[in-house]
Amino acid sequence: MQERVSGLTYAEAGVDIDAGNRLVDMIRPAVRSTRRSGADGEIGGFGGVFDLKAAGFSDPVLVAANDGVGTKVKIAIESGLHDTIGIDLVAMCVNDLIVQGAEPLFFLDYYATGKLDPNAAATVVKGIAAGCVEAGCALLGGETAEMPGLYARGDYDLAGFAVGAAERNRLLPRDVCAGDVVFGLPSSGVHSNGFSLVRNIVKRAGLAWSATAPFARDLNLAKALLTPTRIYVRPLLAALKATPHIVALAHITGGGFPDNLPRVLPSGLGVALDLSAFDPPPVFRWLAATGEIAQNEMLRAFNCGIGMAVVASAPAAAEVDAALRAVGEKPARIGEIIETEGPERVVTRGALGL
User: Fold this and answer.
1) Contacts (Cβ under 8 Å, ≥6 apart) of 96
2) Which residues pair with 345 in a beta bridge?
3) In whole angstroms, how far apart are CA 179 and each of 66, 300, 308?
């Protein structure tokens, strides 16, 4: 059969296979840096392989989570700062694993764009690899999709998929009771929730991403808001090994305190939350003031300075506090578990320092 001399090509339709191959070569060293027991840290095959036995588990239960970074990615795109958004992607997934008591084992990413920019994509994936190293999991594989016509030129979106494991008898939550103590661990900032509201507030304030951040004078606004989500995996794994009296963990993500704390509680139990027990960082005070946001809306849209809640068995609360401090955390005692029969499972006292 004679080869056509002219005619449409995939590249002319907007998909550059060679650019995708260049990207794989560019990110290979970053992927290799995530090697751990059970995974070899290589990419390029049709699927990733993980050896659970080599990871040292005896009676494991697998735990899986997937997430994205929401419209925070628009700030990375519009500012051209792509180096930390990948850390956010990993954090949002692995923080959902550790709350089950699971150690993250491996991670896969999905990067979708209208026109592949290998340099920008490689920067994003290097951030993903950095997040995996911080979480102790292997970047086992991923997918890059170039879809002209679906995304505007320069736009991209991210999704992440993480799998972890826990010994069957160590899964969380377990044995949560009324009277148990709730500790809060500090967030690094807004993390990766509420950014549709954040972006509206920035627009309302008339600020450019290059402007000095009103709440962080040493950074421009984009850099300050792109502060990556904290990864709580290593300190919490260490604390879980140090004490058996952590009975539940809650990632304060989309939905804030009212939606996330009840997710780890049995029916009939709620949380009495003391808002005066922690001080929201300056970014939240600026968002609340500039957006004229009510306290209840702040509590549901943002983490307000607490990225992870730790529930400790009441008789051993001091032991849990000490275990958290021993691994470098600064826990604040922010509430306690209470009996409740009404629809409101999180009741508050005091006020946020906004």
Assistant:
1) 65, 67, 162, 251, 253
2) none
3) 33, 24, 19
Please tell me whether residue 26 adopts helix, strand or coil conformation. helix
CA–CA gap between residue 305 and residue 295 (Å, rounded)? 13
Distance between the two ends of the chain, CA-based, in angstroms? 74
- Render 27-42 in DSSP notation, one character per residue: HHHHHHTT-BTTB---
pTM of the model: 0.91
CB 249 within 8 A of CB 95: no
Residues forming a β-bridge with 166:
61
Beta strands 103-113 and 181-186 are unpaired
Paired with 143 in beta bridges are 110
Query: Rounded to an integer, what distance in angstroms lies between the CA atom of residue 27 and that of residue 19?
Result: 12
The pLDDT tens digits of the residues spanning 95-112 come to 999 999 999 999 999 999
What is the token pair recorded at 54? 């080599």
Count of all residues that appear for the chain in the document: 354
Query: How far is residue 38's CA from residue 49's CA, in Å, rounded to a whole number?
Result: 8
How many whole angstroms from its chain centre is CA 88? 5
Where would I find the H helices in the chain?
Answer: 17-32, 72-79, 85-98, 118-135, 195-205, 221-225, 233-242, 256-260, 282-291, 295-301, 317-326
CB atoms within 10 A of CB 187: 23
DSSP-assigned letters across all residues of 284-323: HHHHHHHHT--HHHHHHH--TTEEEEEEE-GGGHHHHHHH
Question: Could you report the per-residue pLDDT of 163-198, keeping only the tens digit for each?
Answer: 999 999 999 999 999 999 999 999 999 999 999 999
At position 320, the amino acid (one-letter code) is V
The residue written with tokens 């401090």 in the block is 325
Structure tokens at 180: 């148990």
Q: Is the peptide bond before 118 cis (omega within 30 degrees of 0)?
A: no
